Amino acid sequence: PLTDVPIGMWMSAAVLDLMPGTRRASQALVAAGLAGAVPTVLTGIADWSALHREQQRVGLVHAAGTAAASMLYSASLVARYQGRDAAGRAFGFAGLSALFAGVYLGGHLAFRQAAGASHADQLAHLVPLGWHDLCAAEELPDGWPVTRRLGYISLFVLRDGDEVHVLADRCSHLAGPLHQGRIVTDDNADTCVVCPWHGSTFRVADGSVVHGPATARQPSFETRVTEEGTLQVRPV
Ligand code: FES
């Protein structure tokens, strides 16, 4: 991705800054990183505009970290052009620290908040707090996954004897339909579902990942059955 350009350039510049006789090379790398940061920021703004509120909050802090890094590297470049190499290196290392903070939050957005590689969005912002009626418990086949809708969200529903397990249906890897997956048991005899697309395996009790390629837990729901026999769910 585009982010690799400024990150790669600036990390390389930091390595060269630790070596003697590399002034011109590290100056060129800092400048190249700044040039690469411009399209990265523009695509970041476009991505950010499509996120929901919780993601946008983290996105703003992520942007603040990377903006601070860009400003520090700009100051570093100016200092280097003025021949103030020690100041240039100091600004560069400060910029790298700010960059790492921003990159960490960018990773959190992508892999944990479903803005990128993870498609298992946290559902709390989509599902109001409290219990929600889902369907009649008796209509669920035993041991066979089905899908049910809760508002806009598709859910994976598996009845296992007296227990009912409910997960988000879109796989956290690339949004494969879990209700079409195989039901298996893992080494601890826990019931799991295997995604039909690339084989990610999740425990149905809590959505935890048993096998990748998924890296993020599948969002899960608590369940209960009312006296009238209605299955109710609420997000964990
Ligand atoms: S979409 Fe489920 S493993 Fe890839």
Automatic annotation (TrEMBL):
InterPro entries: DUF2231_TM (IPR019251), Rieske_2Fe-2S (IPR017941), Rieske_2Fe-2S_sf (IPR036922). The chain crosses the membrane at residues 25-46, 58-78, 90-111. GO terms for molecular function: 2 iron, 2 sulfur cluster binding; metal ion binding; monooxygenase activity; oxidoreductase activity, acting on paired donors, with incorporation or reduction of molecular oxygen. Gene3D superfamilies: Rieske [2Fe-2S] iron-sulphur domain. It holds the Pfam family Rieske. Keywords: 2Fe-2S, Iron, Iron-sulfur, Membrane, Metal-binding, Transmembrane, Transmembrane helix. This is Rieske (2Fe-2S) protein. It comes from the Bacteria. The keyword Iron-sulfur applies. Residues 132-232 form the Rieske domain. It comes from Actinomadura darangshiensis.
